[in-house]
Amino acid sequence: MENWRKYEKTYFMPPEPCYDWVKKDSIDKAPIWCSVDLRDGNQALIEPMSLDEKLEFFQLLVDVGFKMIEVGFPAASETEYQFLRTLIEQNMIPDDVTIQVLTQAREHIIRKTFDAVKGAPHAIIHVYNSTSVAQREQVFKKDKEQVKQIAIDGAKLLKELAEETDGNFTFQYSPESFQGTEVDYALEVCNAVLEIWQPTADNKAIINLPTTVENAMPHVFASQVEYFNKHLRDRENVILSLHPHNDRGSGVSDAELGILAGADKIEGTLFGNGERTGNVDIITLAMNMFSQGVNPGLDFSNMSDICEVYERVTRMKVSPRQPYAGDLVFTAFSGSHQDAIAKGMTWREEHDCQTWTVPYLPIDPQDVGRRYDSDVIRINSQSGKGGVNYILKQSFGISLPEKMREEVGYLVKDVSDKAHEELTPDNVYHIFEDHYINAKPIFSVDECHFKQEDGIVAEATIHHNGSNRKITGVGNGRLDAVSNAIKHYFDIEFELAFYEEHSLTKGSSSRAVAYVGVISNKKRYWGVGVDADIIKASIEALVVAVNKLDSVQRSQTCKDERLLDITNYIYANYKEVTLDDLAEKFFLSKPYLSKYIKEKSGMTFGDILKEIRMKKARAMLKSSSATVESIAESVGYQNVEHFNRTFKKLYNITPVQYRNKP
């Protein structure tokens, strides 16, 4: 690490001491919050959000309580332009929410931005240009006056176009790369912009200070902010905004000290998503205030739902140690920690406490939708039953799903208790293997082929009662299709409730392990599969889990052989098959065939056909973007209204609602 010698400080201190913020020890009220998830966070994604995903995320931000939402850089891409137009034209912006759009201080981009924002009920036009020494010298090759002129020209054009464009506009200016800019020069540029805009009490302007690349300690940034707070012209008519990034890992500290130094507004993202190391994490920032008795003005009481939407639409992951939101942030693995928490909870009950002071828990987990029994007091490898997971993971590369650990732990603990001896890692693995990998006493699936046909169709060979039979199923994925085939074969019902997978080993001979949990009669059954092919591993895990079902263990015979052939034929020809076709195929009269199907299955031919078509439709609704009309036709319904009515009658939900359901 001798290369440290090539680095030096690239920030600038204010030209005068600015340390009044040090005299404050806490934040007494929340700032104005502005989410930039749909712009700064979106452009940081490997795969940016689609229009539908952005619309869903926008609604999430509204539900959380954001009153300012930066919706994008409409001049940058057609998707962002269309997103903004959709919000405006479909009246999706609540009256109390202001959208914000970003534009460089370049004429053609500013003009396109105003075209995009035309008709908005209220919009902030956020214009910026970089003012840092590095950008001036290396990128623009312009001196201070020339760079300042870029900002002035942009400010003038904003004012001119705002008067010509339908809408209600507020102006915001950012000296990009602020921390790499001489503080007094950055102030000079911002004051020049404000001189043009002439903000008033009824029409305030916003000056935004971004740590575009965080390069200083938080107290330096606070001093820079305080200098602006003291010397910005028309300060009473200006909203002083901060946009902290997190390159040094100090984004939250920058924001908190910046608020103490006089900032009015904070721009950031949920979970700190953003380019490089991200933006300031607004959830952490807001919850920090919440934990000290300050109303943040944002609602994170249903944190798990927020995490679910965020992970699904951004394809990012919330770290299990993410403050306030991670799966493990309230969990105590240590026995001493668990004991202290338990005693603290008892103290609260005994003393009827109105304030929160429980050891190891900075806030009440219930305030963000978590539970004491599943999120706080849990057993892990260091305390009791959780040790089983530790042994399997460390010695064999098997990391049990959280929901499976307790069952496996009790199983191994029971063996240990009855044997009155310590179990070695090999003992633990063999117990696990016997109960969750090799346990297939009733049936197995020895071969399976798939094809894409308006969903996934599985054609499997099941070995049961000493013979092999072909079974067919359809689903919105391979595992779902095999699951439906098994249900069809045994004439049983269960819910495929849990699936997880991970790599077991590395290298060319690497194998994968899959975990499957099914629910039948409100009871969960687990299976595990290990194979070089993750699909095969998944099927093996499913088979083990289903073998444990009481309904399967009681079933020593499968569905009538001829009926199975008949229903397989219906699966293969569901679009156009008729009772006449079946009668001809199986050399039976229609009346006899109709009666035979009813007696053997308890369902009419029409009911079976309807069920198969609806399963196909459900798979297509989840796996494709085809229209409902197209899907209806694909599964054999020429009349889409008839299809809609049939679907809703069967599932108590419309096809569109089913598609949009998480």
TrEMBL record:
Q: Residue ranges of the HTH araC/xylS-type domain?
A: 564-661
Residue ranges of region Regulatory domain? 439-662
Q: Which species does the entry assign this protein to?
A: Mediterraneibacter faecis
Concerning NCBIfam families, the annotation shows: PRK03739.1
Q: What is this protein called?
A: 2-isopropylmalate synthase
This protein's major location comes to cytoplasm
Its annotated compartments are: Cytoplasm
DNA-binding in keyword set: yes
Q: Which Pfam families match?
A: HMGL-like (PF00682), HTH_18 (PF12833), IPMS_D2 (PF22615), LeuA_dimer (PF08502)
Which pathway is it part of?
Amino-acid biosynthesis; L-leucine biosynthesis; L-leucine from 3-methyl-2-oxobutanoate: step 1/4
Write down the chemical reaction(s) this protein catalyses.
3-methyl-2-oxobutanoate + acetyl-CoA + H2O = (2S)-2-isopropylmalate + CoA + H(+)
Keywords, comma-separated and alphabetical? Acyltransferase, Amino-acid biosynthesis, Branched-chain amino acid biosynthesis, Cytoplasm, DNA-binding, Leucine biosynthesis, Magnesium, Metal-binding, Transcription, Transcription regulation, Transferase
Q: Which family does it belong to?
A: Belongs to the alpha-IPM synthase/homocitrate synthase family. LeuA type 2 subfamily.
